[in-house]
């Protein structure tokens, strides 16, 4: 039995507090996806509300083929993507087609994002470096390192193949390292 079924059934049955519980459980993921893509708190709040409105309207179509959080993540990603398209904001940097010619198996394991976040000053520098990334790579790095989602879950949310997710993750880590190395040298 799917662990999400009781909550989904409760929401569909209009049980008091069920939808609020669903929102409470998945707000963090929704916020991370949308905010990392759009970068504006006011827009992100509105888009999160829009995403949960869509979740509510379409919950009856949820088929338990993936985890509920992945399905909600797909909706949040879709809402943010449409927002970026309306604003004509590119999803990736120019020349970054999401594919790499070389094989990327060990996705930049030499960069430990969690350890970098531990130091407050380095954390601020990392946040600034993350903001320098385009929306899709920034979102992928956040979902992988801060939300602890698997490559498969990120692929399900974004609709991109796992190889493309690995590619973005690898290049984003290299870019973060390039951005942070000079800054970190100045703090030592």
Folded structure, characterized:
The structure is a single chain. The chain has nine helices and no strands. The protein has helices at residues 5-12, 18-38, 41-58, 68-87, 113-118, 120-131, 135-145, 151-158, 162-187. Residues 97-111 have low confidence and may be disordered. 31% of the residues are buried. It folds into two domains: 5-87, Orthogonal Bundle (Rna Polymerase Sigma Factor, Chain: A), CATH 1.10.1740; 113-187, Arc Repressor Mutant, subunit A (Orthogonal Bundle), CATH 1.10.10. It is elongated and about 55 Å long.
How many separate structural domains? 2
Strand content: under 5%
Which segments are poorly predicted (pLDDT under 50) over 5 or more consecutive residues? Answer: 97-111
Helix fraction, binned, reads: 55-70%
Give the termini separation: 53 Å
Mean pLDDT: 85
Output the CATH homologous superfamily of the largest domain.
RNA polymerase sigma factor, region 2, helix turn helix motif
Q: Note the quaternary state here.
A: single chain
Class from secondary-structure proportions: mainly alpha
Order of helices and strands: HHHHHHHHH
Tell me the Rg in angstroms. 18 Å
The name CATH uses for the topology of the largest domain is: Rna Polymerase Sigma Factor, Chain: A
Please give the CATH architecture of the largest domain. Orthogonal Bundle
What is the makeup of the main sheet?
none
């Amino acid at each position: 039995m799917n662990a999400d079924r009781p909550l989904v059934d409760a929401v569909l049955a209009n049980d008091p507090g069920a939808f609020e519980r669903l929102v409470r459980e998945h707000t963090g993921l929704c916020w991370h996806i949308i905010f990392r893509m759009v970068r504006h708190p006011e827009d992100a709040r509105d888009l999160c509300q829009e995403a949960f409105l869509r979740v509510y309207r379409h919950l009856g179509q949820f088929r338990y083929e993936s985890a509920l959080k992945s399905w909600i993540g797909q909706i949040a990603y879709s809402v943010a993507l449409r927002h970026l398209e309306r604003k004509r904001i590119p999803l990736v940097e120019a020349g970054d087609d999401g594919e790499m010619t070389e094989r990327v198996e060990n996705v930049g394991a030499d960069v430990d994002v969690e350890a970098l976040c531990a130091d407050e000053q380095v954390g601020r520098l990392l946040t600034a470096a993350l903001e320098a990334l385009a929306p899709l790579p920034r979102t992928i790095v956040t979902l992988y390192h801060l939300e602890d989602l698997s490559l498969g879950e990120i692929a399900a949310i974004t609709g991109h193949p796992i190889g493309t997710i690995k590619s973005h993750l690898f290049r984003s880590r290299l870019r973060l390292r390039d951005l942070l190395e000079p800054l970190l040298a100045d703090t030592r």
